[in-house]
Specification:
This protein is an alpha+beta fold and about 500 residues long. Helix content is about 60%, strand content about 5%. The chain is globular and about 85 Å long.
């Protein structure tokens, strides 16, 4: 009872965070191409008893991340009896844990009231809530960043460099973070620079810590390193090619100042504006205004607290990592989506917490926070109260239909060009009668959002779709064939479930 009386406020905030992340999660979680691919890879590892050594392919640079996220979601998926909701619940729980870590860090650095308000904001930010309601590798990044900040509380804020376990933990966490999204490399770069600046005058004391951090980093990246050793460092060459930027414009080191400035401002709007506003699907003037106010609040707070013995170390660290990463990303000239920046999410509420601790700015900061909470709450409510998408359930229904039609007989599974393939592949391969990877006479064509057209049905390249990941060559449900000469007859073409049509085709070899 004493515990409840003492901690009732943060318990309520955590309960709210838990509710917002778990309510109707099975019906509303995203389960599309990336999510289906991840589940298929876990299924493949369980079947073969062999780990994969590379993770998902990056959107830029033709390279792959490390595989650690796949290892992490094995247990949640198995506990959920192979239902994709298991990893989604796991991510939701890490989101709640991140709320608690924001509270813990803010309380240590800036006091209880700033900690409560900032953790409440993080608990209800619409974009944060949405990103923690489905399983995806970038969605784990905020939790890992929060853990890194907890380690930095010892190593940077309190300068306890003797703690070998903290240096090792830092290396382990950084090794995991860079496998969740390649954009986190810029954060890691500024983190390394922060360590060097902090221990510049006593760099010899840093040597044991750097060794343990490097050890932890290598341990976490060991599967990826093994893959590189086996494959002539193909990913390292791709990273080098991207960074050197000789034959592409993804990264540009010599930019006109106005172009670089505009890119940095754009990234700050993407991060701050989307977190503090209602919708991240569109840009509006208010979103940019909120972003500008937050940037002003960050600068003013840093100036006001820079000379404080208590507050200066944490706020300088937060601002350096947050704005350093944003400024560093100015050289990246491709589109940046909000989830690219998920590793920076926990730093935003901590800036609010710091501003609440200032003497001259706190009332403005609290007023700004109150407006943001008032503004975003309806959107958060609408996210969890929206109708179910049932994306996983839809794929289950398709698999059930096909299994009933075939009654244990072999078949191939294909999809039209506008259909998310892997969700149907995953549920088909965990069903009692998975599809065959050799050519069968019975083929089921899945068409999403519209009936199967003649172009879909009579497409001579019906088996052209390859694996969603190099390790899934045996989990595509049809042979690898670029061209099919067989004629086909239509057994049926029905609407089966929630905007998904299935055409049952019979392949016939021409005389």
């Amino acid at each position: 009872m004493r515990f409840l009386r003492k901690y009732w406020s943060i318990i309520l905030i955590l309960a709210l965070a838990l509710f917002l992340r778990l309510y109707n999660i099975a019906g509303t979680m995203t389960f599309l191409e990336d999510e289906g691919r991840d589940m298929l890879i876990v299924k493949r590892m369980l079947d073969t008893k062999r780990p994969v050594l590379i993770g998902p392919q990056t959107s830029t640079g033709n390279m792959y991340l490390g595989p650690l996220y796949y290892y992490i979601i094995i247990i949640p998926l198995v506990l959920a009896k192979m239902n994709p909701v298991g990893p989604a619940i796991f991510i939701a729980l890490t989101g709640v844990a991140t709320v608690w870590l924001v509270y813990l860090l803010a309380k240590r650095w800036f006091g209880k009231t700033p900690a409560l308000v900032s953790s409440l904001m993080y608990a209800i930010f619409p974009m944060i809530v949405l990103f923690t309601r489905n399983s995806w590798n970038p969605n784990l990044a905020p939790f890992i960043t929060a853990l890194i900040l907890l380690v930095l509380d010892t190593l940077i804020v309190n300068k306890l460099h003797q703690s070998k376990k903290h240096w090792l933990a830092l290396g382990l966490l950084v090794g995991l973070l860079v496998q969740l999204h390649y954009m986190a490399l810029i954060f890691v770069g500024f983190l390394g620079l922060l360590v060097l600046i902090t221990y510049f005058r006593s760099w010899r004391k840093l040597i044991p810590g750097v060794f343990f951090s490097f050890l932890g980093f290598v341990i976490m990246l060991s599967p990826f390193i093994l893959f590189e050793l086996r494959n002539d460092f193909v990913n390292m060459h791709a990273i080098e090619k991207l960074l050197v930027a000789n034959d592409n414009h993804t990264i540009r080191y010599s930019l006109p100042f106005w172009l670089y400035r505009d890119k940095v401002i754009s990234i700050s709007h993407i991060l701050f504006g989307n977190i503090l506003s209602r919708s991240f699907f569109e840009t509006d003037l208010l979103k940019n205004i909120l972003s500008a106010i937050f940037s002003f609040l960050s600068i003013a707070t840093t100036i006001l607290l820079a000379k404080s013995k208590r507050f200066a170390p944490p706020i300088l660290m937060i601002i350096f990592l947050l704005f350093g990463s944003i400024i560093g990303l100015g050289i990246y000239q491709e589109n940046i989506h909000p989830h690219y920046l998920s590793f920076l999410f926990p730093l935003v509420p901590l800036v609010f917490a710091a501003s609440f601790a200032t003497k001259h700015l706190r009332y403005f900061a609290y007023a700004f926070a109150a407006f943001v909470i008032f503004w975003i709450t309806p959107t958060t409510y609408s996210y969890i109260n929206s109708g179910p998408t049932l994306q996983s359930e839809k794929a289950i229904n398709i698999t059930t239909y096909i299994n009933k039609e075939m009654d244990g007989q072999p078949y191939n599974l294909v999809s039209s060009s506008h259909t998310n393939t892997t969700p149907y592949q995953y549920h088909a391969f965990i069903s009692p009668n998975p599809p065959s990877n050799i050519m069968e006479s019975d083929v089921f064509l899945i068409c999403q959002d519209q009936p199967c057209t003649d172009n879909d049905i009579y497409n001579k390249q019906i088996f052209l779709t390859g694996p969603a990941h190099p390790t899934l060559i045996n989990y595509i449900g049809h042979p690898l064939a670029t061209y099919v000469i067989e004629d086909r007859t239509i057994i049926s073409s029905d609407h089966v479930s929630m905007g998904v049509w299935v055409a049952h085709l019979k392949l016939v070899t021409p005389n």
